[in-house]
Amino acid sequence: MGNILQEFKKFAMRGNVIDMAVGIIIGAAFGKIVTSVVADIIMPAVGLLVGGVNFTDLKIVLKHAVMEGDKVITPAVSINYGNFIQVTFDFIIVAFAVFLLVKAVNSLTKKKEEAPAAPAPPPADVQLLTEIRDLLKAKETE
Length: 142
Prior knowledge:
The chain has four helices and four strands. The chain has helices at residues 2-12, 15-49, 81-114, 124-141, and strands at residues 60-63, 66-68, 71-74, 77-79.
């Protein structure tokens, strides 16, 4: 049992697992921000453009609820296609934001790769030959 715990500890403390956990946490928070942007900013404007329609309220009722006074005996059965439209907009915006992020990272990486590297020093034998050549040229000019 102790061996399994040691292996799990070794696995959990690897850099990739921790990086992945941080990414998931940040991704969840980013998802909430995007959901708020879509639901609170973009969709009201889109709803206004299409005549004040709230997409999350759009549905096809297959069977109406059975009521007894104010008490619901059997809930309504409906296809909530408006909610599907809302989630689709959320996905498109998240996908576009991730695309822009990846594009920015790729352009930074490309610029780093394009930067010329410092020339490597020549091998020792080439340096020696260069020095000999320079000394011979200096003697010729004397």
